Amino acid sequence: MQQTINGLALGSTYALLGVGVTLVWGVLNLLNFAHAQILTWGSFAALAALRLGVPVPVAILVGMVTAGVLSVLIDLVVLAPLRGRKAPEFSFVVATIGVSLVLTTVLRTYTDAQTEAFPRQGFPVGAFEFAGQNVPRLQVVMLVIAVVAMAGLGYWLNRTKSGRAVRAVAYNRETAELLGVNSQLVFSICFFVAGALAAVAGIFVAASAAQVSYSSGDGLLLIAFAVIILGGMGSVKGAIIGGLVLGVIEVYATTYVSSVFREIIAFAVILAVLVARPSGFFGKKEAARV
Amino acid sequence: MFEWLEPLQLFRLDTALILTLLVISVHVTFRVGIMSLAPMGFAAVGGYTAALIATKSELPFAVGLLAATVLAGAIGALFAPPVLRLRGIYMALGSLALAQAIVVLIRISDYTNGPNGIAGIPIEVRTEHLVVTLLVAFVVLELSHRSHFGRAAKAVRLDERTAEGMGVNVFRVRFMSFTAAAAIAGCAGALEAHRTTVISPDQYGFATLVIVFTYVLVGGNGHWAGPILVTWGLTVLRDSLHFAGSNWEDVIYGVLLVVILLVAPNGLSDRSLYRGLRRRLRGRQDRPAPDVQDPAEKVASR
């Protein structure tokens, strides 16, 4: 029971990570390898705001806006021209890898490759007892944020006009444009949302570890990929559930099998899901797409 | 043969030559449209096989190199059927997971000395060996590029269903390419282990993979010379960026990469890129550009 709670707590971080990546994939068919760097930049922006003495919610907001704007800038400067040239799928992969290299290096130079302490005052730390189990507060907040984000995204995508525009662009960009949808605006909105959600995940990871460094996002990228593969690529609901399941699997494997397996779980999950059911829990059947 | 070079330059030359071998490995899969991110995993298999044979037995270097190549190829052949079921980005992610799983297994196993890696591997590889290996690889690549297999590979990349309809055994072509790439990567890993004398699981990480994959994508998939020339060109460029300090080196490199992609989304060996350039060089009064491009040529340049 305690392990399940720990697993769900870990998984809520993963879920929040996966949502941003899956949104960009669902709309653009683009896997953003710079996502981890956007997350790290968002955490550092929040850290800078906290050092100026602003309250925690404002700092989180600063981090979200910074990461969101950065994400939109990457799209406008690098990815939009590539789209205009009808570049093949894999030049987007390389382009985002190039961007991530630049972002990492700038941050590494700026921080002198030092790990910075992340202040935890103002964050809900510690744990409370619930039905005899220890529940870490920070993770509960993250889980709530993840569920709220999913509900919000679900409402936005299914019930609002701009959400319909997003789905139209995801379905067929040219048709959507003929119908009067500004597709560049849709892309910008999606990148902003993805960046902002990544920043939230990054800030909470930094707060729970009480530290942040220029490379703290790197390990999270492959986990985010594992999450969206497990949940089905492009499915927001799948990303949340996939994240929680991955967290629980990881904690169970660490507790009941061996702690050495912790690192290998994400990769084993990617391989197993891709081989057994490439479309994940909730994905459309498109893994065999040529 | 290469004594006239300074040790540092020699070291960089060797690094570039082994990187070239890895680039060839990725190109072999890329040529048939397999986006495999697994080469570093196979390089780890090769490196550790050679290192274990060299340090724990009395067998000569050649046996270790052969065993490394064969074992990496065998693991590639074993995992080829499940991985080859996937396409596009799923294939990339699946093969990346395979590679990372191999590396993590090496890191947590006691037999491979865990995260500390293996030290004291005898130096057996000299620049001459690498040059000869690469020359052999070039000849084989050019022969296969011109052979029935090379044309079948191109057909599979451009359109699998059409290729199948033309009587190409698509699975066989993909299987052989994946296995050959694994063996080449294993060979590169073994050579690298016998050059640097120390290996650890961390060196088979994302960083080298990103560099290799970038070279192949910028080089394009038209002809094997494309990625290899890009590898050498960008390695020279990267080394000459040292004057700017290691911090700015990566920034310039990353920006350059993005710019090259914006100019040539299909890679630098894309033929349509040079068609436009040639037209401009010839001068505008020459002949107006044909409005309708030859569809056959358009396909051929892909």
Protein architecture, described:
The complex is a heterodimer of chains A (290) and B (302). Chain A is mainly alpha-helical. Chain A has helices spanning 2-28, 35-51, 56-84, 89-111, 137-159, 161-171, 173-178, 183-209, 218-231, 236-257, 262-276; strands spanning 116-117, 127-130, 133-136, 211-212. Helices cover 74% and strands 4% of the residues of chain A. In chain A, strands 1-4 form a two-stranded antiparallel ribbon. With 302 residues, chain B is mainly α. Chain B is 72% helix and 0% strand. The chains are: A mainly alpha (290), B mainly alpha (302). Chains A and B meet through α3, α4, α9 and α11 of A and α4, α9 and α11 of B.
Per-chain topology:
The complex is a heterodimer of chains A (290) and B (302).
Chain A lengths: L1 H27 L6 H17 L4 H29 L4 H23 L4 E2 L9 E4 L2 E4 H23 L1 H11 L1 H6 L4 H27 L1 E2 L5 H14 L4 H22 L4 H15 L14
Antiparallel strand pairs in A: 1-4, 2-3
Helix pairs in contact in A: 1-5, 1-8, 1-9, 1-10, 2-3, 2-4, 2-8, 3-4, 3-8, 5-6, 5-8, 6-8, 9-10, 9-11, 10-11
Chain B lengths: L6 H24 L8 H18 L4 H24 L3 H21 L18 H20 L1 H11 L1 H6 L4 H27 L9 H14 L5 H16 L5 H18 L7 H12 L12 H6 L2
Helix pairs in contact in B: 1-5, 1-8, 1-9, 1-10, 2-3, 2-4, 2-8, 3-8, 5-6, 9-10
Computed structural class of chain B? mainly alpha
How do the SSEs of chain B run, as a string of H and E? HHHHHHHHHHHHH
* Percent helix range of chain A: over 70%
What's the helix count of chain B? 13
Question: Beta-sheet strand percentage of chain B?
Answer: under 5%
Give the strand order, joined by hyphens, for the main sheet of chain A.
1-4
Residue-averaged pLDDT of chain B, rounded? Answer: 81
Oligomer: heterodimer
Shape of chain B: globular
Largest sheet of chain A: 2 strands, antiparallel
